[in-house]
Amino acid sequence: MAYRFLPALGDLDLHLIGEGRHEELWTALGAQPMEHQGVAGTRFTVWAPDARGVRVAGDFNYWDGTGFPMRSLGSSGVWELFLPGIGEGALYKFDVCRPDGSHTLRADPMARYAEVPPANASIVTASHHEWRDQEWMAHRGDVPVHEAPLSVYEVHLPSWRPGLTYRQLADQLPSYVRDLGFTHVELMPVSEHPFGGSWGYQVTGFYAPTSRMGTPDDFRFLVDSLHRAGIGVIVDWVPAHFPRDDWALAEFDGRPLYEHSDPSRAAHPDWGTLEFDFGRTEVRNFLVANATYWCEEFHIDGLRVDAVASMLYLDYSREEGEWSPNEHGGRENLDAVAFLQEMNATVYRRNPGVVTIAEESTAWDGVTRATHHVGPGGFGGLGFGLKWNMGWMHDSLEYVSKEPVHRKYHHNEMTFSMVYAYSENYVLPISHDEVVHGKRSLVSKMPGDWWQQRANHRAYLGFMWAHPGKQLLFMGQEFAQGAEWSEGHGPDWWLLDPSYAAESDHRGVRTLVAELNAVYAETPALWQRDTVPEGFDWVDGGAAEDNVFAFLRYDAHGSPLLAVSNFSPVVRHDYRVGVPKPLGDRVAWAEVLNTDAERYGGSGVGHPDPLKPQPVAAHGRPGSLLLTLPPLATVWFRPV
Predict the structure, then answer these.
(1) Residue 476, burial from CB neighbour count under 10 angstroms (0-12, 13-18, 19+)
(2) Which listed residue (236, 277, 359, 478) is catalytic?
(3) d(CA 220, CA 383)
(4) Is 306 among the catalytic positions?
(5) pLDDT tens, 368-377?
(6) Among the options 154, 192, 306, 434, which is catalytic?
(7) What are phi and psi of 81, to 5 degrees?
(8) For the segment 392-439, what is each residue's pLDDT rounded down to a tens digit?
(9) How far apart are CA 39 and CA 85, in angstroms?
(10) Looking at the predicted structure, is the pLDDT value of residue 579 above 70?
(11) Nearby residues of 496 by Cβ (< 8 Å), 6 or more positions away
């Protein structure tokens, strides 16, 4: 009988939960298989402070919790019951008696495993995975991420190769990503979510990897396999909001609990979801612990935090009269600011080598500044490691989508990013958001015929990989897929089938991406000083009439790389570009990458032999190179 057992939750756990400081909350709440007082069973615990009573219902009691009421552990709001004989694989929910006496059957907010949607019961689970990524974990933090190469392949796991399980993906994804030379994968949200069409951005099971592709240990196996292939794993994490499903978090114990008690602050104006109450200590604890849970239980190397702007501003997507200012009369959500600072500080303190990345679409000051450095607005930094550069993405895509004859009027859209390039530590994101909902795929945004579209696509990638900031490319864009992405069928792999007539067109672009990543990785000038002005120098940022951009990148020793992009469809002969004085005995410049190479599908205009600088001053430099710029192409040069 369950009631001859003493509570299996300690006083320290309850104290930390009450303080909102339990950094390993998943060890205290939820369903924990264990031996208690010499008997094997499962301890069930749940936080429901407004409930009149809570019972455990499951497949072990025919979903009738009448005989299984839980104990209230005092003022903590936590309910607890140890059930002997219940083990892994058992299905369960909590039968919550609301303040008005009605009952609601709820999935466990802390469930580590859930049924495959649309079923939604929680499942008792424990991990038996034996990690084999010790070497990766020991060295992943050796170099600070903003001074290291970071090139990210963004993946929607359920549709990358539809139908594959986590373990089957572990056979295919690591080798594919390694062959392409990306340093990291970024997985769109893997937390359990009821509606596949949300792509995981509307989460009901914050502590459970989606069971659509296997068990939590199967997911650990995938991460382990990626690590052993030398590939880091970033996951999208969504602490901004949650859906209103009546079996999940919404009004969990009969009153607003995880959401804000003010309905106007709880309702997310854009997505029909509910916003978390970031000011409530237990809710903040639920989310901060969740961030570190993914890093510690699944060895995740980075968290890309979704929709940060919607958390930071009280007036986000709200009209006059639909929001109330903070205590200082401002529009900043002070609770969300404090939450993000605590989350970042906790993750970085507990998990060396992990990076947090903000998807933040405004000019909020100090997103990647340390939390203890107060900025001009009176706020400490948010403490993120990197931030998505939405401005660069928007401006540069606007430029390349124009016909070349019109590009001279939009030249500043390609150069403006350098005005603010050092305000934050940036990632350049060509993400899933840019290739859905009628925005067209990357190659389909480009003007001109099929040859010109691919040439534009390649030139743009060459420009992006040379530009300060880390790289992110969504799956399918690495081989110039023409169609938008659909979660129903994933990338158009048939374009790479040798029996398809235009296969070489697509394979050429994929070859370019692999070689961009290879040259990038071995060229510190392209990443070592990404976040300081000394790493970049315009050679010519004003050649609007020519549609040409030329700039230098420098590594920590001053070793340069010259990148020249020609976004016009004509060959430019005898094009003079100023270069710095040679370093030591390296007197010539050699072409190290040319997006117009024939093996990528280009026309093959280039520089097969090293070029010696001429003593002709240009662009404020003593010497210069006379180049032949291929049409719609980016060319990189290094001193030899």
Answers:
(1) buried
(2) 359
(3) 27
(4) yes
(5) 998 888 877 7
(6) 306
(7) -160, 130
(8) 999 999 999 999 999 999 999 999 999 998 999 999 999 998 988 888
(9) 8
(10) yes
(11) 479, 503, 506, 507, 510
